[in-house]
Amino acid sequence: MDTIGATCLLPGERALACPQENRPPLLDSSELGQECLKQFEVTRSQLQQIQVSLLGCMERALKGKADSAPAVRMLPTYVGSVPHGTEKGDFLVLELGATGASLRVLWVTLTGTEGYKVEPRSQEFVIPQDVVVGAGQQLFDFAAHCLSEFLDAQPVGNQPLQLGFSFSFPCHQTSLDRSTLISWTKGFKCSGVEGQDVVQLLRDAIQRKGTYNIDVVAVVNDTVGTMMGCELGAGPCEVGLIVDTGTNACYMEEARHVAALDEDRGRTCVSVEWGSFSDDGALAPVLTTFDHVLDQGSLNPGAQRFEKMIGGLYLGELVRLVLAHLAQHGALFGGHTSPALLSPGSLLLEHVAEMEDPCNGAAHTHTVLQGLGVSPDASDAELVQRVCAAVCSRAARLCAAALAAVLARLQHSREQRALQVAVATGGQVFERHPRFHNILKETVMHLAPECEVSFIPSVDGGGRGVAMVTAVAARLAAHRQLLEETLAPFQLNHEQLGAVQAQMREAMVRGLRGEASSLRMLPTYVRATPDGSERGDFLALDLGGTNFRVLVVHVTEGGVQITNQVYSIPEGVAQGSGQQLFDHIVDCIVDFQQRQGLSGQSLPLGFTFSFPCKQLGLDQGILLNWTKGFNASDCEGQDVVCLLREAIRRRQAVELNVVAIVNDTVGTMMSCGYEDPRCEMGLIVGTGTNACYMEELRNVTSVAGDSGHMCINMEWGAFGDDGSLGLLSTCFDAIVDQASINPGKQRFEKMISGMYLGEIVRHILLHLTSCGVLFRGRQAQCLQTKDIFKTKFLSEIESDSLALRQVRAILEDLGLLLTSDDALMVREVCQAVSRRAARLCGAGVAAVVEKIRENRGLEVLTVSVGVDGTLYKMHPHFSSLVATTVRELAPRCAVSFLQSEDGSGKGAALVTAVACRLAQTAQV
Ligand code: G6P
Ligand code: BGC
Ligand code: BGC
């Protein structure tokens, strides 16, 4: 930067172009000096204007309402709590960018609450200028080299080292270890870094260096390190303030006020990045022409205007510009200048600080000015000191206005008028400039009189604070690793799912042949799906799902009308005697008939009985074993149609004609087949899970006949009961199975269906709590209770529309005390468990549709699957995950899934209608 740019008029100078009559009068040298000093005066109302405008910008940015180039960025730092002193361990800290063209490596030992402190070991490295403005890779390789050089002198061995990266530039952070550089400031201008994740760049450089096993677990802004490092004696600091080469502040904001975060509780640290504050309305009156000249001569003209009035990188330059101007206009050094005085960057912060030294300032001033090649007289030196004071006082007062805005924000966010707060301060301007701190303090007291502010100078430039954040990050990283290790067995890859599909296929074939198989492949005596000619009124029962329903179904030309009544099956009845259960069923039927005015009518009845039954005919079904929490005695091995008829008989005066017993999968297939004739498979994913499909009769060795089809109830819930799912079964599955009333049975069902997913999640949460990963390792009483974590919670917690705060609400209603990190992890556990269930279910469907395709020797099969069940219907992602898995594993089948609207009761009525129609045609 040569002479003062011609673009802007400075005091006492006039533009040649302007006409004689309105030229300002020429100023004598002392007036010129005064005029210059006056420019740096900032009035109280201007400071208040800046405070108010900055506060406005902060609140707009917090709400995410700021325009594209926000005046201040309000960047979340993912630091959720001030240090609680329990942090322990040895940590590496790398500081880049806080103190100009240098970086510092520290070895910090945190001793938790053991009360003694270990002095950090550190080493400073000057960054060559060509690196500061060179290629980004060069800068990060330089950093990795310095790390290595530092560690060469430390007793490291080859233990993995955890590093906290203090990176003092504006960054969009998305987690404690992911941070994208927005723009360089403070004289840095490396290429290929803006828009990049600086943690990854450092990790890559450390990798390239390859000397030490260093894991970068956290990246923090220097203000955060300063705040977190503040001595606990004074109580936790909740504001971090840096005035070094650059300036910035961070503070603990109520998380619910940070729109960028999906949080409603607790506090989170926000980096204000006030260096970019540039509200023309507020700043223009205080910006001097020297500021404009400095900005134009900087590496980032137009940016960081506020910082360029406060930061240590700029104060010296501002003073130099004023001195050069005064000298060039004869107001200083007799009008003499020098190359040094006219060359940018020749006057540094330390020079200004020395000249302002209350004791030896005058002497220092002479030394500094002679160093610049000018020879001051006493009045020159006095004026120079006054220029230094003017520039630095303005900086301190502007900084105070900004801090007062942060204090006002804290009052707002905490709805507190009187505020007591500790501000951690750091940076060379604080440390070196004799008066900066006091002017700042005084001005803050004027601008924020109701705030009681204590300023806590940071002891080690924030190194300890960065180590504390690193300790928290390391703990979270360790927790994350434990979480990922715990959930890894739930992530099934294509090969594993392909193996399940193949195993299920083999088991189907063996089951159809009546060979040993965990799939019973039970013929249902339903040979065709409805053809729409069915007619009549039918009663239907639907037992085995969440609800027991009694229905009356009217099948007419115009379609099917259904009236149904839901009845409960108390656990005592479901696990009581068979007689009691069937008497209860008949009671409900009688109650329904009375309500529907059907008493005394003997309508054909279809019985959806959703348990494994060996059918000998349409109206004969031998219960093989109970599932899904049912365990009524004296039923297994019995024909449940007989049990129902006996109960009807016991009830006298009730006429019921039980025509068909169907499994809910069959009822669902029939119900959907009535709308879509391509529907040849039924799928239930509810309390239990199962599937049926139309098999070629020739493949059903237990039923005579080679042509036509027979619907087969696969009872796939029992798949794997022969141990074939052993490789996929986790310790949590084993716990749930052992705690069930049918251990060793229904293994596939217990990995998929609604009755069990909540329990799997509960046991994973208990495990993660015992590892200290969740709920701070405190076992929650509520989670000890079986079945307390309902599967419907998974559907709610995984809903995309649910903010994290609502996830917390669900879990708090359960009685859990949790942090947002806990809520996030609980959601991940739910996602892993439900995703595995959907993928396994998809592998099962793929096995069936591929069998149908090959049965028919088709290149491509187009088929529909009728589906029912609360889990499938209510879970936000289950159905799409099943469909995706089927597409992956059975690409030659075009499968569409039809959600059954009326449940399988309608299907049972249709099966009954078909049976009645067939019976009539047989009589004719
Ligand atoms: C529907 C059908 C029932 C079936 C149930 C399964 O309600 O009508 O026959 O048993 O779905 O789902 P759920 O979630 O109730 O166990
Ligand atoms: C950066 C901030 C940093 C401040 C103090 C500014 O230039 O944008 O991120 O906190 O300097 O070092
Ligand atoms: C039963 C099946 C039923 C499925 C869905 C399983 O427990 O064994 O018969 O289809 O649940 O309800």
What is the helix fraction of residues, given as a range?
40-55%
Large-scale geometry: elongated
Structural class: alpha/beta
Low-confidence stretches: 1-23
Present as ligands are:
6-O-phosphono-alpha-D-glucopyranose, beta-D-glucopyranose
Quaternary structure state of the chains depicted: single chain
Number of helices: 30
The beta-strand count equals: 26
- Trace the largest sheet across and list its strands: 1-11-10-9-12-13
How many whole angstroms does the radius of gyration measure?
39 Å
Q: How would you state the average pLDDT, rounded? A: 90
Family: Belongs to the hexokinase family.
EC number: 2.7.1.1
Pathway: Carbohydrate metabolism; hexose metabolism; Carbohydrate degradation; glycolysis; D-glyceraldehyde 3-phosphate and glycerone phosphate from D-glucose: step 1/4
Pfam families: Hexokinase_1, Hexokinase_2
